[in-house]
């Protein structure tokens, strides 16, 4: 989709395989993280979130892992399907911030081969 | 479908012009956030309104302004448009004042093309 950067990292997986999308965040004070999925021509769609007092959270076919030591976040998608093809963004927010605005990563494009 | 609506879906205009983008929040949501998504900058926060009042400001140009009305819909006004303002503009809404653990739900966006 034309709503993504020209130089996005791209992950190509076979249908049915598991996908792992990684994200490095910048602010050690961030304590809330969200993964969004953006399909071509659409707005970002909430997938899953995690607070900093957790290191793992599971949803339906998705798992988010948080490693605060190295400021790393990952999204695992089980049994990837063609409908999972999209750009995935991580976003962070930090405790004590008066602003609710999210800081978004650059995004990773997931391409699922049938 | 997030429940957030944005109009228009597409907008084509010329440099120097002024446009207004509209956002209607999900039922019950009091906060509206505006974001700009361009090819080189990714998703950038512009401004947040909560229950009619400006709550937070991000990388919003002085040529841009926003407001939130009593019925909680919001408008983003872009004036003296430049070619570089061409981008996707998203609004997102959340139930409260935008605390750090509040989920934001995004609308489908308005694609602005400045010629």
What order do the helices and strands come in, and which of them pair?
The complex is a heterodimer of chains A (114) and B (115).
Chain A: E1 10-14, E2 19-24, E3 30-38, E4 45-51, E5 56-58, E6 62-67, E7 72-77, E8 86-94, E9 103-104, E10 108-113
Parallel strand pairs in A: 1-10
Antiparallel strand pairs in A: 2-7, 3-4, 3-8, 5-6, 6-7, 8-9, 8-10
Chain B: E1 5-7, E2 10-13, E3 19-24, E4 31-38, E5 42-50, E6 53-57, E7 64-68, E8 74-78, E9 87-94, E10 105-106, E11 110-114
Parallel strand pairs in B: 2-11
Antiparallel strand pairs in B: 1-3, 3-8, 4-5, 4-9, 5-6, 7-8, 9-10, 9-11
Description:
The complex is a heterodimer of chains A (114) and B (115). By secondary structure, chain A is mostly beta strands. Chain A contains no helices and ten strands. Chain A is 0% helix and 52% strand. Mean pLDDT of chain A is 88; it is low at 1-6. Chain B has strands at residues 5-7, 10-13, 19-24, 31-38, 42-50, 53-57, 64-68, 74-78, 87-94, 105-106, 110-114. The mean pLDDT of chain B is 93. The chains are: A mainly beta (114), B mainly beta (115). Chain A binds chain B through residues 3-6, 31-32, 34, 36, 41-46, 49, 51, 89, 93-107, and chain B through 2, 4, 6, 31, 33, 37, 39-40, 42-45, 48, 55-56, 58, 88, 90, 92, 94, 97-109.
The biggest sheet of chain B amounts to: 7 strands, mixed
Shape of chain A: globular
Radius of gyration of chain A: 14 Å
Radius of gyration of chain B: 13 Å
| Total strands of chain B | 11
Number of strand segments of chain A: 10
Outline the low-pLDDT stretches of chain A: 1-6
Distance between the termini of chain A: 19 Å
Order of helices and strands of chain A: EEEEEEEEEE
| Helix and strand element order of chain B | EEEEEEEEEEE
